[in-house]
Task: structure prediction
Amino acid sequence: MASIRAKNILIGKPGTSLANKTGGWRVFYPVVDKAKCVACGMCVMSCPEGCMTTSKETKTLIDLDYCKGCGVCAKVCPKTAISMLKEEK
Amino acid sequence: MKKVTEGLKAIAETVALCRPEVISAYPITPQTHIVEELSVIVANGKLKCEFINVESEFAAASVVLGASVAGVRAYSATSSQGLLLMAEVLFNMAGMRLPVVITDANRAVSAPINIWNDWQDTLAIRDAGLIHLFAEDNQEACDMHLQAFKIAEDHEVMLPVMVNLDGFILTHAFDPIEFPEQALVDKYLPKYVPMEKLDVKNPLSFGLMGGPDRYLETRYAMAETMKTCPAVIRKAAQDFNKMFGRNYGELIEEYKMEDAEIVLVSMGSIISSMKDVADDLRAAGKKVGVLKIRCYRPFPVQDVIKSLCGKKKAIILEKALSIGGVGILTADIKAALYGQKNVPEISDFILGLGGRDIRISDIKAIVALAEKANLKGEFYGLDPKLVEEMDK
Amino acid sequence: MSTVKVFNAGHTACSGCGLSLAARLVMEAAGPNVIVSNSTGCLEVFTTRSPQTAWGVPWVHSLFENSGALATGIVAALKMQGKENEARVMAFGGDGSTADIGFGIISGMWERGDDVLYVCFDNEAYMNTGIQRSGLTPFLGATSTSPAGSVTGGNQKQKKNIPMIAAAHGVKYVATACVGYQRDLQNKIKKALAIKGPKYVQILATCPLGWGNDSSLTIQMGKLAVETGLFPLFEVEEGKITNVMNVAKPKPVEEYLKLQTRFRHIVKNPEEVAKVQAIADANFKRYTKDKVLF
Result:
């Protein structure tokens, strides 16, 4: 038998955590009021998951596959454009 | 041409011929002359290498681990307390499958503090996942380093290798040493080619957590490699013999074993004395042979079975023990022989701990004792006066 | 949005984790041409449960206390491969790894002057093992090994001053940062990585679980730690304080303490609060711009 180095389970390929959709953890989910959002990026900088993006055109977008619903974005938004709503499952 | 050299300096010069790219070690008796000499070799520009002074053996082992995972050949040396301080890193290094080579100048472990020879240090970490090789003399110790790098770095192995030599008995002895030619060393031991490494062009993560769903398989993989690596160890010895013309056996070495009835079994420098005893006793009509365990991990189970089964008596000389259990080498040998046919009677002796002298006459006396009765875990050479004093 | 970045989502940090935010900010500032050695701890565990990894740069974990020595070995290996300009090397550790179990290793690395940026992610206790006291747990903070008992209430010792210890080693660049001030944090990481030699950045990483604050308050907690004076933000270059974040109107420490259950046992006790206030007040006096330390 060739040697088994357990290589495939000892070494990780870049960014493979993306397969783990942590959005399922959420109790509350963020909703962006695009009329209020000025795309300042405060929330993007503050998101512990790094799952937010923003631009003048799109305004703030949230990748709900990964958002854990911590509510940090809603708290830092200077325009109170983000609300946290209860997940209903 | 042979050059009379101190054991440790000879090892340092040989290690330099192996072209390690990162060396990190910490001074400890009786290993210190290796690091001293290597630092001199590097300081004089005779070896292109990063020599890193550190604050402990724990750091030394960690530095070479970091260097190895970054893709270069790395080396360290230690002894006794230093090896135990490295222990946590050594388990990790083996689990991460990093082919570092470490020299251990075998020394007793405190308390009481004692700088002299036995095997307690290396045998205390026998379960870490390193390959353990034991040298009989300084020439073998030197040559074993070339083989150690070759075995460790083989892609079928990828485990750290420890080269063991008895403290003071070998480390500080001056012997005529044959140093190999650099060109031949380079041919025997080409540049290390890692299978993967820390590299911004291929950004892999190393040292991941393995939970209950995965850990078992990683240890299984190590155990499987230990089963298959003897082929690599044998080939390393054979190729070495072909290229340099020196042969010390492969996993074991047998001395006058063909017709032997009584077999002396041990490891390391005591083997030389045992060979002399075998010669002397044969001259007196006793059929005595010697079994040298050259590779302790992986333990050469099949070789030991083949070597010992059919013999009348095996006498194991131990320079370490598992306190509360039995002699460590004895446990391995008995486990190997269990369930086999024609198993010899076994006597085992604990001796030489903390540097207590073992003379030819002592080994002959042990043979005489073992001929009278099968003795188990017998401490040989105790000072009766001290034993009495301790009883008071 | 599943393109691989230097630090990726899908990791298993708690909701609102200041440490995952700090790590992301550090990595985004550092960019792809870095190699990271990471001590055992929350960051290591929540990013690399095999076979998954959140990292998009070469990353290695060995033990709890040796990320600094690993970094030394990596720097040496890069040099031997002629790749020292290909990647910058960073070593990461938590507060326990940095101030306690790995402290000797870090001192050795600094003394050697290795070209490593050591980042301490300071969440002020051993969070990975369940909130035990470390050398960086704040004065009177309750943890599971410095509990709010009836005789002694919380941690009786002050935070070990690692930035000053680093500066005393001759570390070329020492800075403190906080998740409350993201751009400042990232500027400090960029500045540090541009310097050859040893660098140390200690980042206060809020921990909703360990501190007992609401998970949405990650940023506010960080800001309050700075605005009260309990975690001053400064830079030390070549032994001199070159920059201190100005707090025009310091806030009373109560504002910070009352939001966290770890200080619940003292917020109604003015004498105890006064002791914490005294630390904050002393910090404002101690860290002043242009002060020569060593």
User: Anything to note?
Assistant: The first strand of chain C starts at residue 34 and ends at 38. The mean pLDDT of chain C is 97. The interface with chain B takes residues 32-35, 37, 44-45, 48-51, 53, 55-63, 65-66, 69-74, 76-81, 86-87, 104-105, 107-108, 111-112 of chain C (CB under 8 Å). Residues 270-286 of chain C form the longest helix (17 residues).
